UniProtKB/TrEMBL annotation:
The chain crosses the membrane at residues 139-157. CDD domains: HTH_XRE. InterPro entries: Bact_Cytoskel_RodZ, Cro/C1-type_HTH, Lambda_DNA-bd_dom_sf. It comes from the Bacteria. This is HTH cro/C1-type domain-containing protein. Residues 23-84 form the HTH cro/C1-type domain. Signal peptide: none annotated. Keywords: Membrane, Transmembrane, Transmembrane helix.
Length: 158
């Protein structure tokens, strides 16, 4: 049996005043569908559907997955999924701002600093080193040692 998605929430109640969960529950009840039927149609477990309807987001497997569930459930109920996601985003952003403002020290977060990503000019070696000629080895001590070795060898064999 396919549910009738043309029925809305209770008349006289402004949808903007209702929570996300209340809107979902009212719409599902107006359609005459049980959570078990929604689970079969959407492949979202009943415990997660119940968490969505009771606005208990901490029972969902995460914010991103919860928003996916909300989108699928809203589409199934014939509601605008983008509007429901925006409502959730507004609520989540408020709670996140409160958590970030309430740090362990009770102070606010520091302002962001600009970051310069341009590469810096770095000299790999001094320019003066390139202009110096290579050093020469002083051959006088080497020649003296060789002369002494030759003299000792000549006396040895003589």
């Amino acid at each position: 049996m396919k549910p009738d998605r043309s029925k809305g929430v209770r008349s006289g109640v402004q949808p903007a005043a209702l929570s996300i969960g209340a809107i979902l529950r009212e719409r599902r009840e107006a359609m005459g569908v049980t959570l078990a039927e929604v689970e079969v149609a959407t492949r979202i477990r009943q415990k997660y559907l119940a968490a969505l309807e009771s606005d208990e987001w901490d029972l969902l497997p995460g914010e991103v997955v919860g928003r996916g569930f909300l989108r699928n459930y809203s589409t199934y109920l014939g509601l605008d999924p983008n509007e429901m996601i925006e409502r959730r985003r507004a609520i989540a952003d408020e709670s996140l701002a409160a958590v970030l403002a309430d740090t362990s020290a009770g102070s606010t977060l520091p302002p962001e600093r600009p970051v310069d990503y341009r590469p810096k000019d770095v000299a790999l070696h001094d320019e003066e080193d390139e202009l110096e000629p290579p050093r020469r080895i002083n051959l006088a001590p080497v020649a003296a040692v060789l002369a002494v070795v030759a003299l000792v060898a000549a006396l040895w064999w003589a």
